[in-house]
Amino acid sequence: MVWVNSIPKPPNLAEIGFYIFVKGLPRTLILTVLGLLGGFVIGLSLAIMRVYGGKELNWLASGYEKLFRGIPILVLIFVFAIYLTNLYEICIGDTCFGIEPQYRPLFGVFLALALRSGAYQSQIFRGALLSVNPGQEEAARALGMSRFQALRTILLPQALRLAVPSWSNEYAVVIKDSSFALTVGIVEMTNAALQISSNFVELWAVSIGVVAILYFLLTYPITRLFGERQTKKLKELGMGGG
Amino acid sequence: MGKPVLRIVDVWKSYGELEVLKGVSFELMEQEVKVIFGPSGSGKSTLLRCINMLDPPDQGEVYLSEQNLMEPGINLNIMRANIGMVFQHFNLFAHLRAINNVSIGLRRVKGVSKEEARSKALKALNQVKMAEWADHYPAQLSGGQQQRIGIARALVMEPDVILFDEPTSALDPELIGEVLQVMLELAKTGTTMIVVTHEMGFAGAVASEMLFLGNGVIIERGTPQHFFASPKSDRVKTFLKQLDILYGSHKGLLKLSKEEEDK
């Protein structure tokens, strides 16, 4: 809590916001961006398995979805950021490589967010792939494209566009869930606000209020931009239903 | 005329209990235009999908330039690139501009360079009189314009034959003409085509043979003159009469070709 003690006098509103931003925002953003990207890779792979894979792959992917959608994010964070942290280093003889000890909780939270978001993103991409008009694949195959070529050049580009509105919603979920990182001692925005409020008890309500507004400012404009604008754009392209 | 481009031998196809095609055979020579017509559910679209193996037949043989497509181990993707297809609902790639809709087959399937594909695509768009719409997305275009791009997309691959699956039946009446006009010009420049359509004016103008399909078999076949003057079976007579009531006289639609000749 060194940095909090260095704040000299009871800070004003702007200063509280400034400290939360400077101290907390980097970790919040790292966790959100990496969690979403990891979830993207996992989710897209699972969705392709579910739509194009055989029975076994489909079973595997839907099992994964059920598992990670059924466990609270807090439990996942405890598992990956506390219990399993020893696994993040592999030693062969005397040489060890892996995540530095001080970054292991961060890496664990990233894993928890990515694995869980992957389960939700799988559903998003699966829905998007299924809502591409079947005539599109037919036309691609009729041109002489293989199934894989049709998927890569025609179906995926359309499915990814169709997924943008739901995906921006997933961003809003992950950025807010990244606040659970405070439970394993990571100083992200919520933790920064809590530390300020415990140092200046009379500012408790103010600092919690400021961090709430900051989260709102980080989510609403983006979900609006990607959600509504993309929906309009998709309509103009005549893609997807409704 | 030489060897047939396409030879269909005793093709059968069923979906579960439903037998859609029950032994269809015909040959298609180079530069020939064959029109297939008949009531809905008679297997017209299924026949086309059997020819390009989007839905392989259960039984029978399909030869493209003497190559049997039913042979196991054959690379159907390569064969399909030689069979153009124009769809009833256009099926243009919604996320691509017109020009890219036309060039993507060249680039991805035939491995043509970007510049060459673009210039070929522009040429094809020009042929269907859509060059000035090259940078539009499909949804910004009318049905007739979309279908003409669909034709250009098939044309640009320089296929041995182009299959048209009811190309005008999803169009507003006033847009049908522009699409038929393009198809007419293609037919006259020697494109080998199989056209599933109820546009008897078009059939009368360019078809070398017409096949009447009913209940999965060819009930009657002959020249347009044969069908318009003296069809044999009652099925065909009733059907043509119904078409007449629905779309007006085929003689009226035939003007399309006469206008062509006047030019």
Write the layout of secondary structure elements.
The complex is a heterodimer of chains A (about 240) and B (about 260).
Chain A: H1 2-5, H2 13-52, H3 55-69, H4 73-83, E1 89-92, E2 95-98, H5 104-131, H6 134-142, H7 147-177, H8 189-199, H9 204-237
Antiparallel strand pairs in A: 1-2
Helix pairs in contact in A: 2-3, 2-5, 2-7, 2-8, 2-9, 3-5, 4-5, 5-7, 6-7, 7-9, 8-9
Chain B: E1 4-15, E2 18-29, E3 33-37, H1 44-51, E4 59-64, E5 67-68, H2 76-80, E6 83-86, H3 98-108, H4 114-127, H5 143-155, E7 161-165, H6 173-188, E8 193-196, H7 200-206, E9 209-214, E10 217-222, H8 224-229, H9 234-247, H10 250-262
Parallel strand pairs in B: 3-8, 3-9, 6-7, 7-8
Antiparallel strand pairs in B: 1-2, 1-4, 4-5, 9-10
Helix pairs in contact in B: 3-4, 3-5, 4-5, 5-6, 7-10
Describe the structure.
- Chain A is mainly alpha-helical.
- Chain A has one domain (27-237): Orthogonal Bundle (MetI-like fold).
- Helix content of chain A is 76%, strand content 3%.
- Chain A is built from nine helices and two strands; from the N terminus they run H-H-H-H-E-E-H-H-H-H-H.
- Chain A has helices at 2-5, 13-52, 55-69, 73-83, 104-131, 134-142, 147-177, 189-199, 204-237; strands spanning 89-92, 95-98.
- In chain A, strands 1-2 form a two-stranded antiparallel sheet.
- In chain A, helix 2 packs across helix 9, helix 6 packs antiparallel against helix 7 and helix 8 (189-199) packs antiparallel against helix 9 (204-237).
- Chain A is globular, with a radius of gyration of 22 Å.
- The model of chain A has no long low-confidence stretch (mean pLDDT 92).
- Helices cover 41% and strands 24% of the residues of chain B.
- Chain B is globular and about 55 Å long.
- In chain B, the strands form two sheets. Chain B has a six-stranded mixed beta sheet, with helices on both faces. A four-stranded antiparallel beta sheet of chain B has the order 2-1-4-5, with helices on one face.
- The longest helix of chain B is centred in the C-terminal third of the chain and has 16 residues, at 173-188.
- Chain B is of the alpha/beta class and 263 residues long.
- Chain B has a domain at 83-158.
- The interface between A and B is medium-sized, with 22 and 29 residues.
